[in-house]
Amino acid sequence: VREDSTSVAEYVANYITTRIKEFGPSLARPFVLGLPTGSSPIEVYRILTAKYKAGEDEYVGIPRDHPQSYHSFMWHYFFSHVNVRPENVHILNGNAEDLESECAQFETAIEALGGINLFLAGIGEDGHIAFNEPGSSLASRTRVKTLAYDTILANSRFFGNDVNQVPKMALTVGVQTILDAKEVVTVALGARKAVALQKCIENGVNHMWTLSALQLHRHSMVVADEDATLEL
Ligand code: GLP
């Protein structure tokens, strides 16, 4: 627990940088990061100067260059500011003709890279991780997911507060895809995450609060500001 969002971001950015340094330069394979969108990691991206990634989720049905697409988000907040080679960036394509095969290819790409070293996550107000909405199978892999109304409502702030503008579906890594990462670091900021954090940490593993699946992970950490811990 850190006092505020700035100290959370500093801690997480420093943690990730240390992990990458420990891994060291490798010709055999890169250090693979899974990186989330949302407001929580923005400050981490400002601080970070790390290099490699595999994107976690993407809306279905909005163009790639839409300002709220997760493609635009990641380039805007992170990739344009670091020395990243585009071939090292993997973001799910929500406009692919065959969404199922897009998801399958994403899993194959992760596997070909030797798996995800560190998966950075946020947490939804309904306890989702990536776009694994309540009721998701804890064994799920990358797939198309219909968004819960709560998520559409929460994300409408990025779409002029108009729920009709928010995509209704998204592509997302599955809970099992995340559990397969060698390490998972979750950022939880603000009082609006307090209930979800309590359900995911203090209750049992539950597919209605999908981040709770991380209780099964041997190397998982939540970094929260004080407001997010109000219900603990
Ligand atoms: C979104 C994303 C998640 C993100 C979460 C929280 O819907 N799919 O990856 O972690 O909701 O977003 P925020 O950090 O803006 O609260």
From TrEMBL:
<dbReference type="GO" id="GO:0004342">
    <property type="term" value="F:glucosamine-6-phosphate deaminase activity"/>
</dbReference>
<dbReference type="GO" id="GO:0005975">
    <property type="term" value="P:carbohydrate metabolic process"/>
</dbReference>
<protein>
    <recommendedName>
        <fullName>Glucosamine-6-phosphate isomerase</fullName>
        <ecNumber>3.5.99.6</ecNumber>
    </recommendedName>
</protein>
<dbReference type="GO" id="GO:0006046">
    <property type="term" value="P:N-acetylglucosamine catabolic process"/>
</dbReference>
<keyword id="KW-0119">Carbohydrate metabolism</keyword>
<dbReference type="GO" id="GO:0042802">
    <property type="term" value="F:identical protein binding"/>
</dbReference>
<keyword id="KW-0378">Hydrolase</keyword>
<comment type="similarity">
    <text>Belongs to the glucosamine/galactosamine-6-phosphate isomerase family.</text>
</comment>
<dbReference type="GO" id="GO:0005737">
    <property type="term" value="C:cytoplasm"/>
</dbReference>
<feature type="domain" description="Glucosamine/galactosamine-6-phosphate isomerase">
    <location>
        <begin position="4"/>
        <end position="209"/>
    </location>
</feature>
<dbReference type="GO" id="GO:0006043">
    <property type="term" value="P:glucosamine catabolic process"/>
</dbReference>
<dbReference type="GO" id="GO:0019262">
    <property type="term" value="P:N-acetylneuraminate catabolic process"/>
</dbReference>
